[in-house]
Amino acid sequence: MNPKLPYVLLVGAAVIIFILSCVLLSRGRRSPSCESQASAVDKTGFMSQSLVFADLTPEEMSQVVRYLQGNLGVPLVDASRAKPSENCIASVDLQVPAKAEVLRFLDGGGARPPREALAVLYFGNQAEPNISEYVVGPLPTPVYHRDVTVQKYGGKVPYHRRRMLGSEYQQLGVFLEMVAFAAAPTFLQEVFEYDRTNVAFQTTVPLGFQSGDRSTWFVLFQNVSGFFLHPVGLEVLVDHSSLDMSQWTVSRVFYNGQYYRDMVQLESAYVQGRISVEKVRKASWDGDFSSMKPRAPSAALFPLQYEPQGPRYSVRNNHVLFQAWSFAFGMSVSTGLRLFDIRHKGERVAYEISVQEALSVYGSNCPGGMSTRYMDGSFGLGRYTSPLVRGVDCPYSATYVDTHSASESLRPKKRKASLCIFEQNLGSPLRRHYSNLQSLYYGGLVNSALVIRSIATVGNYDYVWDFIFYQNGAIEGKVQATGYPSSSFLHGDGLRYGNRLWEHTLGTIHTLFFNYKVDLDVGGVKNSLVAHDMAFEMTRAPWRPEQQIERPRLTKKVLDTEDQAAFRLQSKMPRYIYFAANSKNKWGHQRGYRIQITSFAGDHIPETSSMERAISWARYQLAVTQRKEEEPTSTSIYNQNDPWTPTVAFADFINNETITNEDLVAWITAGFLHIPHSEDIPNTVTVGNSVGFLLRPYNYYDLDPSIYSHDGVFFTNEQDFTACEINPIACLPKTASCLPNFPPFTYDGFQNM
Length: 753
Known about the structure:
single chain, Nuclear Transport Factor 2, Chain: A, Beta-galactosidase, Chain A, domain 5, 3 domains, five-stranded antiparallel β-sheet, 11 helices, 34 strands, oxidoreductase, transmembrane helix, quinone binding, Cu_amine_oxidase_C_sf, primary methylamine oxidase activity
């Protein structure tokens, strides 16, 4: 044997061990963390200008409260503990400056409009109790206030139109416990095992049948998780119209299909054995079937989205930049998420896009359910904006923004992470083509869009509000509905009004309508409304005159008046309807932005209804009107509790004025009919419950602006499509092989409740 052979084998073994060690170490080594690129720099100056739309800061809110306390000459009680007979500050919000002032500032080099607040006050301690609205300014150090109530509404707002404060709900809860329920101890104990803690309430609106009424049905449920699905069959109507709480009374009681004068009569009938009792099985504290606790253990992690080189958008104060897009955002206490000064490629396409209202109209054979018409703006779509949960409500790595409100309290409240902004890869191409004819190539663009989102939880419903910005210049407004379905106690002919969801639970039929304000400024403030559609025409084939051809042709019409531009809910609307500019693109067409609505709405309440005018915006899927400062919103927070004499009636906006070459506003309504079914237990899902609208460029550009996106992909059969310089997608194994820097999970949604 060669004496050198053992040494050669040892050296060879050492080399193999070294190589294997390197491979194993490299496999076990943690991938590098993703490095963020520098955020986009705002070179236009719009960032500081956008502060003209910024929500009030907590300091500004506090300054307004202190100013009002010291300058109105009347005592002001903290709204969180105010009695109906006292004065209080209901809310403080931004007073958005007049559009003309803002445009002079943004576009004409004019002075910055004074920063002001709008304060809503309830004056219960006056000879004539009323609601008043004051503009307070200038901020941050106010020195003046002016009453704008008469200017806005044509007179004082009657006190009975005020929305119910949390303190009034608490006072009514005390009344029920100490007065109403004390009159029926035997019934409550033996039927419900009532112990003052095991029932929850849901209330109804509007508060009666005519102006001045203030009577509320309290629907009783088991006080468990998801109580909305646990009705017990008892409903109590309380008249709380008097400012003297000692004068409040029970005016009607309903139990298991029967009506009683009051709780005394109910107790008497029960003791005498004249009541048909339907015992409801006591639910566990987690609600049993209504619990949202997962029924399966955690398994493999769901897919996550991350940004290998950091966010490609920037958020500065209330200003967002994303590729060719920029806009300012804010949160109204009553109407929620709103956007201003929306620009694409530096040119304004919309001055304002905002949520206006969410309406639901219920049916039932129980009094509470059949009388419910929720106008959620009255409760406050901004007031009830929820803290967001990372990784579920929004992508984990989204940018989360805190919001503040001064509502029902002398101190501003902070809602952490109640708004999120993120870029989302939608997992599909925005456009693409694979050519296998003549030339061989592939061209495409990933559909990556920017989303700004808030979620409002108003009672049982959760509304996911999105505004989405696409690379082709389109904007989408979308709302998804989830949360718990509302329910009634199942009895009698209940199945005429919904489906049975559990033993005693009737999921009640209801409509949902969502209204938006869209103030488009296409190529300038002055626009016209144009409709394009199609019609078939019959013609003879020129090459064979004996043969007939049916061909579609383009139809065109300018809609000259507001009446022509008011499209009823279920009516046929032109499929292409757009705001047209006074300028043309390269091909001689008027530049425009098209409105495209996605809606599956149920029927609107009959116009013969005494309360219909208060929600008359829901008559129309689209109505275009002249923009007026005195018509800032399609409804009013005061319409909820007095819909019979509405403070704002949208139908009055439509009065046949010209809309040719004017500053125009589109009022868009989308909605759906919800008939709750067993798959709504325990929770309604967002799938299929999403409606909204698109704003799409229509001859606005000379070609699709997304062709200039840096995300485009193109290669031919003759190119090396594995080379990074040819095809950036081929570089992903290198450029995206990093670990995202996810921050620790936190949640502040249960603090300061």
